[in-house]
């Protein structure tokens, strides 16, 4: 679905023949958004050991500057890959990918799969020619998005909206708390309120958090709107890049969080539903 969103890894000295069967796939996001990618990776590779790392101390990325995001992502992925020796890194975050993917690929010697807005499949799906793009504020302003729009949707109308409220809504839902209806309403109105918005029939969820609140968005936008996001395509790319490799899980899959503070029981239960049975600080 989102095969336009990934590029071949450049880890020049990475030697696939020496991969330990216990070497994990590392998924990285600012918070719980990457779990929507994890879900698809699990379907594709049920035996793969997975470590899910979330920079909760830096959450949300979407309201930060490019320099702040690039520094956090490059620094943390450097430390994480050194410590965990993953066979592949998946940056399960549109904001981090659209800003820092190239930079991280330049320095890390491991295959890296990124996540960028699924504009190409949306352009193929729309009947009315009007596409909504919901991302973080940082993502929707990226030149990367301009390039995708130019390349794949130049004959369509692309309505962008940076929706910080939806990140918190998704985080709350994952903690087992209620979703703020105002955040959902604002996002729907911000898209519908733009010129051509009444004809919008396809919405790109260009933040990995947003599929977690897709049901709420669907209710607010109406049944004529279809959603598309990159997770299934990312999982296919991860499977392609690890094809033929062996897996042996030696310990339960775990979540690593950079933030301080307790992880509630409700939160742990949700993480366990994604197969993340342990939670540690990083
Ligand atoms: N999940 C992230 C994304 O895909 C970002 C959320 C945030 O930290 O603002 O863009």
Automatic annotation (TrEMBL):
SUPFAM superfamilies: Aspartate/glutamate racemase. It is an enzyme of class 5 (isomerase). Pathway: Cell wall biogenesis; peptidoglycan biosynthesis. It catalyses: L-glutamate = D-glutamate. One of its GO terms (biological process) is regulation of cell shape. The active site is at 93 (proton donor/acceptor), 207 (proton donor/acceptor). InterPro entries: Asp/Glu/hydantoin_racemase, Asp/Glu_race, Asp/Glu_racemase_AS_2, Glu_race. Substrate binds at residues 29-30, 61-62, 94-95, 208-209. Transmembrane segments: none annotated. Pfam families: Asp_Glu_race. Its EC number is 5.1.1.3. GO terms for molecular function: glutamate racemase activity. Keywords: Cell shape, Cell wall biogenesis/degradation, Isomerase, Peptidoglycan synthesis. It comes from the Bacteria. PANTHER family: GLUTAMATE RACEMASE (PTHR21198). Provides the (R)-glutamate required for cell wall biosynthesis. Belongs to the aspartate/glutamate racemases family. This is Glutamate racemase. It comes from Novosphingobium silvae.
